[in-house]
Amino acid sequence: MSLIIQADSVSKIFQQRKRLPGLSGTLRGLLKPETVPVRAVEEISFAIRAGEAVGYLGPNGAGKSTMIKMLTGILAPSTGKVHVLGRQPVEERVANAREIGVVFGQRSQLWWDLPVSDSFDLARHIYRIDPARFAENRAEMVEMLALGSFLDRPVRQLSLGQRMRADIAMALLHGPKILFLDEPTIGLDVVAKDVVRKFLARINRQRGTTIILTTHDLQDIEEICPRLIMVDDGRLLFDGPLRSLRRSFGARRRLRLDFYTDPGPIWIGGARPVGSSGTQREFEVDEDGRSLIDLISALPPGTPLRDASLHEPGIEEVIRTHYQRRRA
Amino acid sequence: MRETLMLWWQLMRLRARARLQNRLSLVLAWISQGFGYAGAFASIWVILNRFGGLGGWRWPELAFLLGFQIFGYALGAMFTFTQFRFMEEQVRDGEFDMLLVRPVNPWSFLVFSGIDLQYGSHFALGLVLMIMAGLQLDLDWDLLMILRLLLSLMSAAMLTGAMFTALGACAFVLGRSRFLFGLYFDFWELSRYPAIIFGLPLQLILLTILPFSYMGFVPVSVLLGKPVPILGDAAPMLAILAGPITALIAAWIWRACLRRYQGFGV
C-alpha cells in the first residue's frame, strides 16, 4: 500500500504574546509586543500507508491537535514538511480538503437549528458530490450509523451521541480517502462510544478509509487502531504496533505466587522480587517469552506453592506509569 | 462557478430558514431596532428644527443623508457584521478551523452562511426617509441619477463590509478584535452628519484613514449637487469607487492576517 501521509522532521513553534500587567503594560504590548516561543511539535517524523488506522495519543498540550491541524491544512509547519496525498496541505488547502474528512469531537459541522438532513444536503454542495453518489453514500451512512430515526429532527434536539454519529456521517458523505478525528468519543456514554468505535473500525476495514485518531481514551485505540503514535511535550515517544508498546516502554509482566506457609526469601532466575506480604510474593519478569510453567519450574523443590498467576500490564497502565515516571 | 453560486444560494437559504425558526424574535428585533434608529433620527430632527440647519444642510437633505447612510450600512452589515464581530470567538473556539478543513473560500462561506435578516427595519427606515426627502427636494430623477444612487449605495455597502472584514481579520493575528468594533461604531456615528460641520483634521481622517464620509456625506452631497470640500471634482468618482478600493485593501488585510493564523490550543 502506498504512503499517503508523510511528516518529515516537522516542528511547530507558536509565538505567544506576553501579557504585561497594568495599563502601561497593555499599551507597551500594543506598541511593542513581546513574544515567547512555544514549541508545540518538535522534529516529528512518521509515514502512514493507505488503509491504516493510527491512534495519535498524548496528554493535554502534547501537540496532538497541532499535528492534526498541520495535516488538515489549518496550520503550516514552522520547519520540516508535511505531505498528505502528495500535497502540502496548507499550500493546497482546498484540494486537500476535498479528499479528507475531519471530525472535531468538541465542535460540530451541523446546523444547530435545522434538521440533520439539511446539513447533509449542504455537504453535497460543499464537496460537489454527484447526486447519485450522494444518495448512495447517504443511504449507507444512515443504515450503518442508524441515523434514520432522527434525520429530520433539528440538531439542537439530538443527544451528544446522535450528534457525533451525524457529524461522522457528514464527514464521510464525499467518500474521503483519509478521515481525521480529534477526540471523537469525548463526552459520549459507554453505548455511544461503542457504536462510534465499531463504526470506525468497520469503515476502515470495509472502505479502506485511512483513519487518524487523537484521543485520551485508550480503548478507542485498542478497538480501532492497530498502530499507535505517542507524543509528549511535542516529541515522538513511540510509533509502532500497539502490542509492542509494553516492550518498548520496558513494562514487565508480574508473577504473583501464593504459598500455603511463609516460604521465606524466594529467588527465581530472570525474575526480580518486587513485593512480599505474608504468604504472597510478587516478581517482575525480565523476559517476555517465559511461560508460567517455566517460572514455576524455577522454584526450589518442595516449596509449598498454592497458586500462581502472571499478569500482563494493561496499555493504560503502561502509559500512565510512563507519564508518572516522566513527571516525577 | 455554477457550483459556487449554488453553494452560496444554499447557504443563504439555510441561514434564512434557521433564522425563521423563531419568527417572533425576528419581528421583535425589527421593531426594537426600528424604534432605536427612529428615536436617534428624531433627536437630530429636533435639533435641526431648533437651529434651522446643520452646516448649511436643511432637514430634507439631512433626512436623505440619514436614509442613505442607514440603507447602505444595512446592505453591507447584513452580509458581514454578525460573523466578523464574533470572529474573536470563532477563532478562540475553533469554529474557524472548521471552515479551513472544508473545500471552500472561508470568507465567502462566512458571508453567505451568516446573512442576517435582522436588518429589515434598517432598510424600511432608510427607504422611507430617502423617498420622503427625495420628494421634498425636487430632484431630477433621471436614469443617470438613479444609477448613481444605486452605485453609491453599493459602494457604501462594500465599504461597510470591507471595514468589518478588516477588523474581524485582526482576530487571526491578535486573538482579539471585538474591541475594534466598539471603536468603529464611535466613528460610524459621525457618518450620519454632513462632514462639513467637523474641523479640517477630522474631515481629512474621515476621507482617508477612516473613510466613513463615503458612507453618506460624500455620495449624498454628489446626488444633491452640493460641494464636497477637499475632494472637489473628484467627489462623484470617489463616491462610487471608495467601496471597491476599500474592499481591495480589506481583501489584502484578510489574506495577510490569514497567512499568520495560528488557531488556538496545541
TrEMBL record, chain A:
Transmembrane segments: none annotated. Keywords: ATP-binding, Nucleotide-binding, Transport. It comes from the Bacteria. InterPro entries: AAA+_ATPase, ABC_transporter-like_ATP-bd, ABC_transporter-like_CS, ABC_transporter_ATP-binding, P-loop_NTPase. Residues 5-258 form the ABC transporter domain. It holds the Pfam family ABC_tran. Signal peptide: none annotated. GO terms for molecular function: ATP binding; ATP hydrolysis activity. PROSITE patterns: ABC_TRANSPORTER_1 (PS00211), ABC_TRANSPORTER_2 (PS50893). SMART domains: AAA. Belongs to the ABC transporter superfamily. PANTHER family: ABC TRANSPORTER ATP-BINDING PROTEIN, ABC-TRANSPORT PROTEIN, ATP-BINDING COMPONENT. This is ABC transporter ATP-binding protein. It comes from Xaviernesmea oryzae.
TrEMBL record, chain B:
The keyword Metal-binding does not apply. The chain crosses the membrane at residues 64-86, 107-133, 145-174, 195-214, 234-254. This is ABC transporter permease. It comes from Xaviernesmea oryzae. Keywords: Membrane, Transmembrane, Transmembrane helix. InterPro entries: ABC-2_transporter-like. It comes from the Bacteria.
